[in-house]
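Good day; I would like, with your permission, to put a structural problem before you. What I wish to show you is a protein chain and, alongside it, a tokenised description of its three-dimensional fold. I would ask you to consider whether the tokens describe a fold that such a sequence might reasonably adopt. You will find the record immediately after this paragraph:
***
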Amino acid sequence: MKIDGAVQLTRMLLQENTSTGCIDATFPSKLTGWLESLGFSVRSVLSDGLAHLCATIGPQEAALRLAFVGHYDTVPAGEGWKHPPFGAVEENGVLYGRGASDMKSADAAMMFAAATLASRGIRSTVFLPADEETDSRGMPALLDLVGTEFDYCVCGEPTSKKRLGDCVKVGRRGVLRAEVVLKGRSGHAAYADVTPNVVNSLPAVITELAKPWNDTCYGVATSLSITHLSTDSTGVNVIPGVVSLQFDMRFAPNRSVEEMQREVAVRLDRTGVPYELEWRKSTAPYVTGNEGDPSSPQARLVAITQSVIQEVLGVAPMLSCDGGTSDARFVAWNGVPTIEFGVPHGNMHGADEFVEVGNIELLERVFVAIGERLVTSKG
């Protein structure tokens, strides 16, 4: 079938329920058909019952090799919608639907940009994993399949804040999650004089963990949020023997996982409270800087992206590393200069998620211009 452009493809994608746990088994083959109709060669990997796709277009002997990172899964629709979450309803130039901003509109823009860039001698691979919102196992599996030999990477995650072009991500913070267990001795609450309450140790621990971390990178700082507290007390009159707290830490991209783990342990040691620390999750950060050698691939990508956005959209973008993680990190960790740029947030993950229709074609134009400029500036 003929697809007229990125806007039509966005509508088609929005009419498909690809939310976590609800992806129809026929959707990957449908998406494959759409991609093949645009001239892509499509490959897939099955993981945990999900089909992750990557689509390549452009000459084998290419002037430039680009990775475009997206994902076709979304969070569940949830309640409170005024517009059908899978109806692709358009009102006053705004398109509503689950995944409109995160990130089916960018998926469509990247596909059409890659198809255009193929005629400019650029070979592009568009990555479309199916589990970015959950486990992110699909993206590493796709890279194992096709390799990481790319000159640059562009990810279409929704980075803009109030208007298209006002923010570009040049990295992402790292993530650490852990449980801290404070151990005391349980006893009868009426005899607190003979059973010290381990709960009383919490203020010292929380105070240490909550102190400023004194690091920033591209305007984002390390933060640690305590997200859960519990005890093993079996009754209102029982002093607990164990108190546990869990935290979620987002750390500046100029720090390492190991460095932050050491610093957390140092802070806990300062309290003098006996503890056990179990790390539950660690995700390394990445950053594509524009400092140092201005002719480096990293600096060139950032400078060209800023220049293109200024010319096409009339906006001077802020550079940031804020927000959560994205699947672009798997490409960046392999030394590929990476930026992320997409539409404004559009109430993503909430009811009546939306994208402005005009921004879809503008996003495609920016992606094309970035690729063209990278070719002319290469070497």
